[in-house]
Every structure is written in structure tokens, then in C-alpha cells.
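Office hours follow-up: a student asked to see two folded examples consecutively, so here they are.
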Amino acid sequence: MDKKVIREWKKVFEADLGYIAYELKDMVDAPAVVVLNGPMGAGKTTFTKRFVSENDPRANTMSPSYSVLSETPNILHGDFYRIEQVEEILHLELSLYLEEKQFFLVEWGEKYIRTLNKEVPEDYNFYSLTLSINDNEEQSEASSRNFVLEELSNID
């Protein structure tokens, strides 16, 4: 799999997430799968909620703790934290959920990229968004994050 860095954002605070979401939507070729990577507490779910609300302010995003998939008219959100085997993804029938969606945001999906590549429609482009907490700061909601957006290609 090849990765190409498209954009990096440094010292991102929660107040900046709307801007990051807006810019990301402009940079990726939709329809797109965006796999969110980062440690627990890095802000993957917080970013996803902002991304969804920037697209559809009326959307009520569900907590990913309770479901593997949640959707709005234009976005599918997957949280694969509890997925233990590839077969669980196959049983989700993702292609049915992705009809007419522009974005599929997947938390904890990095180890399933090859499976996702086979399960989503062929016209979807793949990206990785890695979030990291700045090392020189204590981990808290007020800590800044770094974001790196990469385009993924040649996924086998």
C-alpha cells in the first residue's frame, strides 16, 4: 500500500475542528473512505462528530460505543474498536449502507483497510487521517493534536 501525505495540521484545538473538517472535505475526492487512526483519547470521535455536524447541522451523531455503524444522509460512520475478526466486517454489508454516501469515516479501521477495499464500491477513494496528541502536553481535552491526512493507493 502506498501513502502520500496531502496535508498536515499542527497544534489543532477542539475549536479548530470545524475548519479542519471543512478543509478535509475540500481536499479529498468523494466518495471517500477516511480511516481515522490514533490512540485512545486522541479525538477521533470528537472529530467525526464535528465532521458530521459541519455537513448536516441537524444530524444527531450517535455514540460509537453503542453501534458499529451510524449514518446520516451523506455520511456513514464506522467504529471498529470492538471488531475482532474480519468476518464481522463482511457481515455488515457495507455496500448497502454506502449507496449515495459521500464519506465513510472509520475509527479503528487501519488493520482492516484491505478488507474495506474489497467491501466498499470501487469508486471510493481511500485516505488515512492520523491524530496524535502533542507529546509536550498532558493528555486532556484542552491538549492540542496534530493531524496528518494521507491518500492511500495500491491497496492489495
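And the second, which I mentioned at the end of office hours:
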Amino acid sequence: MNLSNAIFIPGPTNLPERIRRAIDLPTVDHRSPNFASDLKAIFRQVQNILKTDNGQIFIFPATGTGGWEAAIANTLSRGDRVLACRHGVFSEKWIHLCQHFGLEVDVIECDWRGPANPDLIEAKLRSDPRGEIKAVLVTHNETATGVRSDISAVRQAIDSAGHSAMLFVDGVSSIASMDFEMDTWGVDIAVAGSQKGFMLPAGLAILGVSQKAIASGATADLPRFFFDFRQMMQTTSSGGFPYTPPMQLLAGLNESCKILLEEGLDAVASRHFFIAEGVRRAADAWNLEVCAHDRSFASDTVTTIFVPEGRDSNQLTLHLHQKYQMSFGVGLGQFAGQVFRIGHLGQLSIPNMLAGLATIEMAMRDLDYPINAGVGVAAAQEWYRIPISVKPAAGLLSECGVISDE
């Protein structure tokens, strides 16, 4: 039986051994003084990772989808208008969630091979002089397409329009992996999930919420109970939880934050870019097209690659799983059957990534793709031989084997 952990999907990610040890806990008393102290420490560390001084941290037993729901349920009322760009499966799902809650969603249709469009956002807000649009929803990193949006540019668009709309950002597949600056970018709610950059099992929705967004809750009338900011703040302020918390996951989050902050957030972002660029160069060597039209918006956590016309990408990912016991992401939405996705976030080393690329090459040759053996791996190797621009600290990299020149 093959028990190797050959996962190259864009989440859930591989678990570092330090985190696996941290979550291996017996039952813990969540009413104890020790838990109260630990919870406050976790909140401070998450603030540092989100780069916010004043944002309130909320942690719910859920996934990123629960975080989306918490964001809108605590700040908006039935019939409110929100503005959202649709440029991938996950931006579309957030739109559908809002519609299920009775919100009126103004949808900007964007190219799925590009980012959310700040110019179209600004134009739409300028056409709303009465300020009826209460929030702008943006997916920072669209996991289905491997395209990153410029959140700073979206905030500039809101400000240039002279509009008061809040800015809600889905950072589920970017936060704790790519640069994210909640305060500098003027983000009112940032949503993350434990199973991606935080390198944990799925089960925690992690939110950073501005004071403006919290204040909007005074008039919000959408139903919420489990995801209620008010009851969560009342209990977490004293180090408790309004219901039984997932103790083992919180212990893992504590350790995850330590790992990330030990490495340094600049080094974390640099490492993800470095590994992602090797994947993109491999795709170029295979003569396969990366989904992102503009490489300056290419994701550093997932690369989406088109298979040749007439091929079924699902056949490739199925073959990889069945013959080589390796998992890669399938195509989603309008790209189903046309693309495969390579996740490269969390704990991942250069040797791991090269093994994944080599296995893709074997699978493509098995299926008679028009590629030469070794070309993608060689292109990635040449890139990976270059020293990383930001020197990683000890911590995660010493564990997963990424090496940089001294």
C-alpha cells in the first residue's frame, strides 16, 4: 500500500510535522485559564499575518465558505446591494451565497483568464451616487483559474469613485502564502481558511474585520447565530468561545502562526513565488498555455494549465491518480475538462515540486501528449538553481528542504 502524501492540489495542503504534533492533543478543557491565554495569543499572531493593527479577528469552526457567510450576515440587510466581479468558480459561489441571502448583487462579468477589473468597479460605483452599494466583493486569488487580483487597485477604485462601500476580500487561497496587507489595502473583511496557507486540516474560517465593518452590524438584519460576530466578541474578549471550540485545530493554528512568523512573511511570499515560477516555466517548456493571460497576475499558490485542444484534462488527472498515486486539481466551471491545476502552497519543497513535474511528464507521455521527456523538469531546475531573493529563516524551510545560498 502506498502511504505517501503526494498531494499537489490547491488545498487542503500538506501538513508540516510540527503542526501534526501540535494538533495531536488529548481532550482539553476549553474553559480553563490556559485556553483563554492561548486564544488571545492566537488572535495577535493572526493580526500580524493579516498585517492589521485594528482589525478584529474572528475564528469560526467552518471553512472559507462559512467565512463568506459570516462576512455578509453580520454586516448587511436583506435587499442591500453589493458589487462583485465574476471571474472564476469561487467568485461565482460567493455571488450565489449573497443571492441566497436576499441581497441584490450587481455582477461585473470579467474574463476568467484575468483579474477583477478595478476600472469597471470604479465606473459602476460612479453610477451609484446615492451610495446604495454597501460592499464590493473581490476574490484575491481565484483558485479555479490561478489568477490573482490587485486588491490595492480595487481600493483605489472605490476611493477614486468617492464611494463609501466596504471592501470584502476572499483570501482563502492567498492569505499566509502571498502578500496580504489588510490595513494598507483598506480591506474591511478578509476571509481565510485553515486548510491552505495556514497548512492545517480544513475546519477553521479565519476573518479579519475592520471597525467600520463591525459598526455596520448595528443595523444589519440578515439572520445569524452560529456566525454571529456579537456573541463571538462577547466571549472571546474574555478568552472563551460561545460554543465548544475545535481545540486541536486552534492548537495547530497557534503553531502554524509561529512557523509563518519565524520564517518571515516576506520570505513566505518569496518562497511561494519562487516555486510557482518554476511551475510556470515547466508549462512553457511543455508548450502548454497557463490560464493567466498576464503573468503579472499569475497566482503564486496554484497554476492552471490548458491541455492541448481535443484532449480531456480529466483523463490526465485521473491517470496521474490511478497509475502514480498523485493528486492534481481538476478543471472547474467553464474550464472543466480543459485544464489541470497544480497547487504549490503551504509546506512544499523544490524536490517535492520537481517530483510532481516529472510525474506529470510521465503521465502525459503515457497519454501520447506531444512533449519530450524531461523538458519541463529541466526548465524548472534551471530556475530553481537561482538563489531565492529573500533569505528564508529557520522553521518551515528547514523541515521541508528548500535550500538557498548563504
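Two things to take away from it. The first helix runs from residue 17 to 23. The first strand starts at residue 7 and ends at 8.
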